[in-house]
Amino acid sequence: MTTLLINSIYRATEGEGIHIGIPQIFVRFQGCHIGCVNCDTKETWDFDPAFTKSLDEVVETVEVLSQDIIKRISITGGDPLHPSHIPSLIELVKELKARNYYVNIEAAGTRVVKEVFDMVDFISYDFKTPSTQVRTSKELLGKFLEEYSHKAQIKAVVSDKKDFEATYDAFHFVKASMKNDVPWCLTPCYEPGEEFPMNRFQHVIKLNESFGLPFRVIGQQHKWAFGPSERLV
Ligand code: SF4
Asked: I want to staple 51 with a disulfide (CB 3.0 to 4.6 A). Which of 10, 30, 89, 143 is the partner?
């Protein structure tokens, strides 16, 4: 029997990136070893067997939430692409595709997993900026874009000028690999306890202007609408 480690399954409106505003069903995996210091879902880090669900349970929950109206799924985490998740993730994606769901996967930018990426409809691939204290390989990002730029966006959480410059540097490094016009989305970072990072938001917009507007600056609207700590929204 296929089992998965699942933190939560819920219906909500996409709050960030180029699909912002679209209702979808989120399937959030439990377990992540990447360790971004500014992670806003640290409760998903433990590979805790208490979160085990069968594939049938997961698909049934998705179908109940869908009511055949919402046919878009976002698979997120945690890190759904951690090697220990891959066999069950593949089974889940196959099942969702067989039921005609549009499937997006949130990729942390640390692995390119061909078996999964070939099957899904869209890949949101992170470029980890210096403030996360996790490194995204520019070479791996280039390899990813050579193969998947027809169905991808790159997302970077930006805290300051150093983060912006690192993203700009990566953008130039991989530019030749981008066969399509891939959207790069900058997400101004929230610091712990902040209600809304207005100054940082404006700073990122102005940096983008001063660098010739290479990026889209898109905030996390679920945090404005429900507050930065609310879950399942
Ligand atoms: S990859 Fe995602 S879940 Fe894992 S630490 Fe980074 S932000 Fe958090």
From this structure: 30
